Amino acid sequence: MDQCIYLDYQATTPCDPRVVEAMLPYFTNSFGNAHSDHALGQQAQHAVEHARAQVAGLLGVSPTEIIFTSGATEANNIAIQGAVKYLLKQGNPARRVITVCTEHKAVLETIHSLAEWGIEIVILPVDDEGLIDPEHLKKALETPTLLVSIMAANNETSVLHPIEELAQIAHEYGALFHCDMAQAIGKISPLSFQHIDLASLSGHKLYAPKGVGALYISRKPRVRVSALFHGGYQERGIRSGTLAVPLIVGLGAACEILKQEGKQEISGLAQYKQQFLEGLRKAIPAIRLNGSLEKSLPNSMNLWFPGVQALDLFKKTPHLYLSTGSACTMSSLMPSYVLLAMGKSKEQALQSLRLSFGRMTTYPQIQQVIDALSCAYEDIMAGR
User: Fold this and answer.
1) Do the Cβ atoms of 134 and 166 come closer than 8 Å?
2) What's domain 5-12+262-381's superfamily in CATH?
3) Which of 110, 193, 237, 328 is the most exposed place for a label (fewest CB within 10 A)?
4) Long-range contacts made by residues 226-230, C-beta under 8 angstroms, separation at least 24?
């Protein structure tokens, strides 16, 4: 039986063993509530603040700008709904929020929910490489706008938007700028938060546990968000609830590892991607890349296999843990809305899959994946 190979690092990552080791004491011996006054509580609080500093250190921001959440979805909701809610309460006359058609559902659905508050939702298109035209953003911003939300790296195609440029444009027109950075953290170096007001990240995308994330909220200039729910005033009242100390410690440890090793890791993953694409294109000349190659993450890609359903490739290669980036069941496949938005046909979308490498990927696995996919493709095309 072929050895299983994990190729879905954009969906989630395994916990780094060093992260697990850092977390373990806070499940047992150091189990205190971080808001208790006694020694165990203070020990937990110290661990939380140390982790906050580690997250901030990776991002190059102040620890006071980091709020812990349960993940990027919650961070997106707090950033988008919280910022708009605060601005409306302050009497801001603008009633428009802008985003992009290829955003993650955690952003698109959150923004669509703002319609209940009388907000006009503007969804910008992308070109055939998945990139937004800055001129489209400028045109949309001619109407007074509260917030622009654009992700740094797409979760299906890995395409990178020119975030610094787009954020600066938003500010020129007086709008706040939020960025979903869940896919970008740990894969782009150096990071720049210039002109970014709010940014979301998720622990399980960077070798930390599931169930923890963070929201960056700029303090210079000062950005304010209203709480979406209320409780014990944890995290400055922005995100009430007892802190998940072990998970937060894990996120901090993962960020510290990336700060120390990230540049070298990114370089290695980029080499894997180049070697893989060269090898696969040689084995299957017909394949095509969905999205920009130059403006994309170093570890991932979305590939079109003409003439072959992605579901059939899955069945032929059960030892390869791949994804389409869309809703998938054992019997059917829905076309990716991201690929459709890029002008791809339904047929092309159903013939495409997402593949990503990560920290645990090895060089021998690269050739094994090339061999497995090319053999499967050849067999399906030959009717075998």
Assistant:
1) yes
2) Aspartate Aminotransferase, domain 1 (3.90.1150.10)
3) 237
4) 226/82, 226/85, 226/86, 226/89, 227/82, 228/77, 228/78, 228/81, 228/82, 228/85
Q: Can 101 be counted among the known catalytic residues?
A: no
* CA atoms of 241 and 238, how far apart (whole Å): 10
Residue burial 266-283, b: 16+ Cβ < 10 Å; e: rest: bebbeebbeebbebbeee
Residue partners of 28: CB distance under 8 A and separation at least 6 = none
Q: pLDDT tens digit string along 273-326?
A: 999 999 999 999 999 999 999 999 999 999 999 999 999 999 999 999 999 875
Pick the CATH number of 17-257 from 3.40.640.10, 3.40.50.1580, 3.50.50.60, 1.10.10.10: 3.40.640.10
Strand-pairing partners, residue 30, are none
DSSP characters over 316-334: H-TTEE-B-SS-B-SS-BP
